[in-house]
Design goal:
By secondary structure, this protein is an all-beta fold. Helices cover 2% and strands 63% of the residues. The longest helix has 5 residues.
Length: 299
């Protein structure tokens, strides 16, 4: 007989002081320089805090003393002791305005991170129905990482033409580092931070009709470490790009119909362990099309 573990209750509280300062300098009629300093906090994902532990078991089919008994294989769970994301950040940007509705900008940023959230997969012994009474399997759980940094560059441009169409484009380079390590690498990147990322959006809006097409791409991303047996390997999400689109039409002042599509190219998402030829997870690309409407109530 396998039973759930004894429930646990966790109560926490914390206080953060978040000073910030910013300044804008008008270098000329068409040029601005912006600078800011701030202490920032981002709350934890509630699902990461409150998700209970899940344990997966399988019936042993190998001949021996554990034949037809249930053995632990893997599991995952949340972590109620997670701290929020905390960092000190500095930003410096130059903006140039041109034409009636044009903008190009260049920005530099730096973040000194006190705590961030990462996912670790480690070996764990869990009680089961085997003769030994427990089996070691992999268990994934979010944990806090400390003392990281991110520095980088951001380029952006946008223009709105008088005919009703326009575009926005953005590119970000991020160089992140943490004391995180595994059996192959030291000073690994902050989990979830891509070194290169860009997005481009084109749109058209006129006479109640609107169309928007967006493409976003990011480089390979470090997710966390995956430990099994005596090995500890890095887990990575492969580079990924996605094309989304949206059409809408205002029937009148109150009614609007919309047609939206996500992942129009059906791009697949993949993960690997440490080396690209060591696949870990494959998610088949799903193209989603949705038809909807909006109703405006009141005056």
């Amino acid at each position: 007989m396998l039973a759930n573990p004894t429930p646990e209750r966790t109560v926490r509280d914390y206080t953060d002081v978040l000073p910030s300062a910013s300044i804008v300098y008008d270098a000329s009629d068409n040029n601005k320089i912006r600078a800011s300093l701030a202490r920032v906090v981002a709350r934890q994902n509630l699902f990461q805090l409150g998700e209970g532990s899940q344990y997966d078991f399988t019936r042993v089919s190998t001949p021996g003393p554990n034949l037809d008994r249930f053995a632990f294989t893997s599991g995952r769970g949340g972590n109620p002791n997670l701290n929020p994301f905390r960092a000190d950040q500095a930003d410096l940007a130059w903006e140039h305005y041109f034409g009636r509705k044009g903008l190009v900008s260049v920005g530099l940023f730096y973040k000194k991170i006190d705590s961030f959230i990462q996912t670790n997969t480690v070996p764990r012994a869990v009680a089961d129905g085997t003769v030994q009474g427990s089996t070691i399997g992999s268990f994934s759980q979010p944990t806090n990482g400390d003392d990281g940094s991110i520095k980088g560059l951001e380029l952006s441009a946008q223009y709105d033409f008088d005919a009703g169409y326009g575009f926005t484009a953005n590119y970000t380079y991020s160089d992140s580092e943490s004391p995180y390590s595994n059996d192959y690498d030291k000073n690994l990147p902050i989990p979830g931070v891509a070194k290169n990322a860009f997005n481009v959006t084109g749109y058209y809006e006129k006479d109640g009709f609107a169309a928007r097409l967006s493409y976003a791409w990011r480089d390979t991303v470090f997710v966390g470490n995956f430990g099994f047996d005596r090995y500890n390997l890095g887990r990575y999400q492969s580079a990924y790009g996605q094309l989304d689109g949206q059409l809408s039409y205002d029937i009148n002042d109150r009614f609007q119909v919309t047609l939206e599509g996500s992942n129009l190219l059906g791009e697949d998402a993949t993960e690997y362990l440490q080396f690209e030829n060591l696949p870990f997870r494959y998610l088949s690309g799903v193209r989603r099309i949705s038809l909807g409407g909006r109703v405006k109530l009141g005056n």
